[in-house]
Amino acid sequence: MTDSTPREGALSDLRVVEMGQLLAGPFCGQLLADFGAEVIKIEAPGVGDPMRQWGREKPHGKSLWWPVVARNKKSVTLNLRTPEGQQMVRDLIKDADILIENFRPGTMERWNLGYDVLSEINPRLVMVRVTGFGQTGPYSSRAGYGAIGEAMGGLRYVVGDPSTQPSRMGISIGDELAAVHACMGAMFAIHARERTGRGQVVDSAIYEAVLNMMESLVTEYDVAGYVRERTGAILPNVSPSNVFDTADDKLLLIAANQDTVFKRLAAAMGRPELAEDERYATHGARGAHQEELDGLINDWTKTIPLDELEELMNEHGVPCGLIYKAEDMMQDEHFKAREALVKVEHPDFGPITMQNVAPRLSETPGAVRHVGPTLGEHNGYVFGEILGLSDDQQDQMRAAGII
Questions:
Q1: How crowded is the C-beta side of 125, counted as CA atoms within 13 Å?
Q2: Would you say residue 7 has pLDDT above 80?
Q3: What is the spatial distance between Cα 201 and Cα 240, in angstroms, rounded to a whole number?
Q4: How does 14-39 read in b/e, with b if 16+ C-beta sit within 10 Å?
C-alpha cells in the first residue's frame, strides 16, 4: 500500500507520531495535520481511540466528532503494552520530527519510551507531552481531565450567571487550550532545533494552558485584593457591551463601549444627547451606570426587528454580532465567502460539513484533505513502506495481537 494522499502546506516536511487518545493530544495532532504534517496516529488494535464513539451520534452509531479531530491523519494499530509494539514505536521515531503523547506522567517511561531513550535514537525529536497537571509537581501523577484543568486554572469560577453554580463553556475548552499550547510549543521547539540541532520536551499542562488565558485575574487579587466573579452576559463596568432583545424575540450583541462608538450608537438611536449626558459621556461614567444604560438601550432595541437593527448598527459603524448556532453559520454569506466551513466526503455519511483550517496562510495554506481514517487504515503503508515489514511479518504480528 502506498501513501496516495498528497500533502501540502507549511508543515509538509514534518512527520508526527501521535500517541494517546481522547482530545488534548489528538487536537494538537489535528492542528499539525491541517497544515500538512504527516501525522501517524497509533491506536489500540480492535478498539481505537474512544473519540471514535464520543460525541453526538447518528442513529447508526457513527461518531460525528471523529471525522473532525482525526482529519488528515493516518491510523495504525499497535499494542503499546507489548515489547514488540514498543520497539515498533522506537523504529518509527528514528525518522520522526514530533511525538505527541497524553498519557499520565511515567507511562511512557514504563514502556521504555521516555525522552531519555527516544532522544538517544533521534536527538532531533521534539516530544510533546500533554497532561492535566504537567510532568512535575505534587499533582503530576493525578488523573487530570479538561474539566479539572478549567476549574483549577480559574476559568470555571468566572463563567456563568452569578445566581448559579460555575458553568461549563459548552465545548471542551480546557483540552483544546492545552492542545493549542502544545502545538505552539512544538513549533517553538522545531524553530529552536534549526539553531541547536537538537529536539526537546514540550510540557503542556491543561490547568496552565487555562491559567495562561486568565488575563490579569491573579494580579488583580495580588495587588488589589480583587476577586473576579461570574457576571453572566455582561462585562462589569463596561457599557454598552451586552446582548439585547429585538422586536421579533431574537438577540443581538452590541459592543459600543468606546466613547466614539457610543456617540454613533446614540445617533443611531435618534438620541445624540445621550453621548453628552454626564452619566454616559465617558467610559467610566457608563460603567458606573451600566444597568441603567443597558436597560435604556434594551427598551429601544426590543422595538426593532433583528434584521433592521443589525443593518442600522452596521450603517452607523457600531460593532454588533448575532448569537450564531450551527444553522446560522451554514447560511451566513461571510462564512461562505471566506469558506470558513468546508464539505468533506465521508465513506458513510457522504459529504459532511466541518470548520475549515485556521489561521489562513497566504503562501502555504492548510487544507482538509480527508476525514478521520478507519481503524488501522494505514497499517500497510506505515509498517510496510516506512518500517519495511513484509506482508508475512505483518500477518504474524496481527495474529499475535501486536498490530
A1: 27
A2: no
A3: 45
A4: bbbbbbbbbbbbbbbbbbbbbbbbbb
Beta bridge partners of 391: none
Q: How does DSSP assign 31-99, residue by residue?
A: HHHHTT-EEEEEE-TTT--GGGT-SSB-TT--BSSHHHHTTT-EEEE--TTSHHHHHHHHHHHTT-SEE
Q: List, in order of start, the domains of the chain with CATH numbers.
A: 15-213+342-399 (3.40.50.10540), 241-324 (3.30.1540.10)
CA distance linking residue 345 with residue 351, whole number of Å? 4
Q: So what's the pLDDT on residue 34? A: 97
Q: Which of 42-51, 117-126, 140-149 has the lowest mean pLDDT?
A: 140-149
Is residue 332 annotated as a catalytic residue, yes or no? no
Given the residues 97, 175, 203, 294, select the one marked as catalytic: 175
Burial of 70 (0-12, 13-18, 19+ CB in 10 A): buried
β-strand 251-255 against 320-322: which pairing, if any?
A: antiparallel
Could you report the per-residue pLDDT of 347-395, keeping only the tens digit for each? 989 999 999 999 999 999 999 999 999 999 999 999 999 999 999 999 9
- Report the chain's mean pLDDT, rounded to a whole number: 93
Confidence of residue 5 (pLDDT cuts 50, 70, 90): low
Spell out the residues 6+ positions from residue 2 whose beta carbon is closer than 8 angstroms to its own.
381, 385
